[in-house]
Amino acid sequence: MGAKRQSSIDININLKSPIFGVRHMQCFLIFCGLCLIYAMREYKWSEQTKSHILSSFFCGYVFAQIPAGAWSRRFGGHLILLMSASLSSMLALLTPLSADVGDWPLLCALRFFQGLFQGATSPALATLMAKWAPIEERSAMLTYCSSGLELGIVIMLATSGMLSSSSWGWPSTFYIPGGLGLLWSVIWFLFGASTPNDCKYLSPAERTLISISLDTNGNSEKCNTVVHLIPWKAILASRPFLVLVLSQCASSWCFWTLLTQIPSYIKSVLGKDIQSNAYFSALPYLMMLLLSLTLCPIASYLEKSKRLKATVSRKIFNTIGQWVPAVTLVYLGFLRTDEGDLAIVLLTLTVTISTVTHFGFQVNHLDLSPHFAGTLMGIANSAAYVMSFIAPLLVGYIVTDTTNLHQWRIIFSISGAFSFFGNLFFLFFGTAKVQPWNDGSQNNNKVKPHNKIVKSSNSQNSV
Fold first, then answer.
1. Which of 308, 342, 314, 325 is nearest to 429 (CA)?
2. Mean per-residue pLDDT for 183-201?
């Protein structure tokens, strides 16, 4: 009787809940915010100055990752994302002035703080989605939000040259996204919310839909009102989380090898200069965006229809997103010197397919621990960005002659192997099940009483 009543309630909620709900509006706002935040990263200086500025930005970015997870859980993802966007926008508006007044040393200081503020975006996003996304829509909603960064990169790569050569000059590449970022911050302040219970625009049907979905996964609103200490020992000893970090590090290694080194390989070995062409540079990001948006409804349908369990879905998408690039990466190293056009196609394909991991390991932080999703995202992102530093250094050590095809093959083989084994361990040990330490417990063997939550919900609904 209870099961029938629960099913009838679910059907009734689905009928009343709008197709485009407030939770989707939250996603759209976050999508736009990430688009503007990532559009603030573009700049045109000498390579030496650019390296100093980039290092300053990423130092701040990595430094903020782990603390931002705790801040988001304590103060709410809405506030942390608001501060990230508004303060980053202010610093973007000050960038041209700082370049004139203090040259690159002051610029490095400014970019460090901008990296610090932007480093909070991913943990805040994970925390927000843990509260807003029903389990069946989790991967699609997170992917849709994250696609904003790809759109931001596409827009600025395609327009930065035009803006720099206009009467407004290069400062306009900071004034425009900075100004729009402040405007977005006002809109987010008015219409964004950390949780469904904080949102006054949410209908009762949609609120109940989200609540029932999250309650059955151990992420009830009541649970999240209790501030637990972060179970560091349990997290760092968790096998599912460790293989998630490994998979994310492998993806980061391959991604940064592709974006920072392959243009040099294509130019030096294959005779094609794609860095000087803004449209060629933006093409991989554009294809990533289009593929992400195409896969969102497909992934959502597969999970809602129960055709795929969450764990199976994560592993299938992650395998596509990491093993296909592993093959194409190795293939790139065996191209002939007259196959430059094919290399560009493979480069675009490799970067594009890697976005499928949005439905794999990149949503797995929310699966393992909705309560500590921001912290897990911060830890994994920190490790992944270390890879973004090490990968180019290894290329510089091995590739002493940029025209030497055999040296490049070593680089591509290492990247391909890293991607292969990163996903292999995820296949064996990864899972989408909530971990026992999600309640703040240090004991990995403790079982969270999910059944009590479900029974309590069912008994209330039966009254």
1. 314
2. 94
SS3 track for 29-70: HHHHHHHHHHHCCCCCCCHHHHHHHHHHHHHHHHHHHHHHHH
The reported pLDDT for the residue numbered 7 is 39
Query: Positive or negative CA dihedral for 319, 321, 322, 327?
Result: positive
pLDDT surpassing 90 at residue 425: yes
For the stretch 22-65, pLDDT in tens is 999 999 999 999 998 888 766 555 555 666 677 788 888 888 99
- Structural contact between residues 78 and 193, judged by C-beta atoms closer than 8 angstroms: yes
Task: Sort 138 into a burial class: Cβ within 10 Å, 0-12 / 13-18 / 19+.
Answer: buried
Best mean pLDDT range from 91-100, 148-157, 241-250, 401-410? 241-250
Angstrom distance (rounded) from CA 247 to CA 419: 7
* Residues 6 or more apart whose Cβ sits within 8 Å of residue 77: 124, 125, 127, 128, 131, 194, 374
Tell me what pLDDT residue 5 has: 37
The tokens describing 204, both together, are 């009762």
pLDDT digits (tens, 9 = 90+) for 304-362: 888 888 899 999 999 999 999 999 988 888 888 777 788 888 888 888 999 999 999 99
* Residue range 403-411: mean pLDDT, rounded: 87
Structure-token match 């594009």, residue found: 352
Residue with tokens 């990491």: 322
pTM for the whole structure:
0.83
